[in-house]
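Translate sequence into structure tokens.
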Amino acid sequence: MTRPAEDRNATQDVVALNQLAYRYAAAVDACDVEGFLAVFTPDGRLRSYHPDADEPFADLHGHEQLAAIPNTMRGMYRRTAHMMTNHLVEVEGDSARGEVLCTARHLSADPADPGSINVIIRYVDGYVRAPAGWRIADRRIHFLWSERHAVADSGMGRGRAEGAG
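Result follows.
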């Protein structure tokens, strides 16, 4: 059975928007300024909200301001891991709206404090189809809650464990 072209195009749009969310996370985790800017329109906007806040504590516009985010992450954390889930989108022609849940783990850069701050985030997005593909035009970052956890060195890769055959 062949699906109509509009169904195939809708599926392709959803897959492309999912990939956009993953590329955002990969760029943040790699502190990759170029990759980070590539997911936004040149005039993209990003606003960040504390839990239950109606007004943002940060409001960045355009690539020049957005470029500060990966560099800030590099200075604050030794490593991060943003895991994107539950990405729901509604596509209308060359624009789309969507939400993504994220569990973001942030490993402290301070060797004296080897903890992890884990943040649950809801991204609320506006997307546009650009000549090079889908881009984020507007992202609202809603920090829902955070948790602090101790981190242990797994010891993996340091030699053969006792009793290993």
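Note: The chain has one domain: 5-150.
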